[in-house]
UniProtKB/TrEMBL annotation:
Pfam families: Filament (PF00038)
Organism: Saguinus oedipus
Alphabetical keyword list: Coiled coil, Intermediate filament, Keratin, Phosphoprotein
Superkingdom per UniProt: Eukaryota
Name of the protein in question: Keratin, type I cytoskeletal 18
Alphabetical list of InterPro entries matching this protein: IF_rod_dom (IPR039008), Keratin_I (IPR002957)
Gene: KRT18_76
Limits of the IF rod domain: 1-98
Amino acid sequence: MMLTELRCTVQSLEMDLDSMKNLKGSLENSLRWVEICYALQMEQLNGILLHLESELAQTRAEGQHQAQKYKALLNIKVKLEAEITVYHHLLEDDEDFNLVMPWTALTPCKPSKRPPPTREWMAKWYLRPTTP
């Protein structure tokens, strides 16, 4: 009777062992499948990340280019405004006019004791080539 019980117990334990082996195999297969899925997702996300990084670099380069263009245009604008001011003064024939560029004038100009410059001199002076 005891031998029969032990055989039943052994048989039951062997069935449990087989069941556990099958469960282990099933879980290992599931683990491999999950690892493969996550590896594919990581590849996709890495591809997206690389694409976004390249777009960011391109956008940054375009932004720097736009900033350089803006600075150049702003410099041109300042120079044109100064030139317009000079021409306005030339046309008005203002006696107290002293040639001072607006971007360099920090204080009001003091009238000089010299006679005002001629239009020809001012045009030559203002339109002379500048060295960088």
